[in-house]
Prior knowledge:
Radius of gyration: 37 Å
Mean pLDDT: 85
Helix content: over 70%
Largest sheet: none
Number of helices: 2
Amino acid sequence: MSNEALGTSSNNAEAVQNDVITQDILKKMAVQNLQTTIITKSIHSEAQKQTRALSAANINLSDISSRLDEQARKEQANSNSSAKQIIGTAAFADAFWEQNNAK
């Protein structure tokens, strides 16, 4: 619809160049104004669609980011827990061998 309006508007603009100022020119200008409004409305509608799509994408990216942060925290907690277990085991083994060597 907007392509048709654009073509007609362009044709009317060219045709007006040869006209003498008459009611015909005023009518063509009115038609051209209407077609410009149609084109503008179409552009605005597409911009709104793009804004909604980008908003949805941003929400999805935010959700992914938050899940990755949560996963990283869990992995860090597991890593810390494993390190504590290793240190505890090493301390126990060291104490055990110290006790046996002292005898």
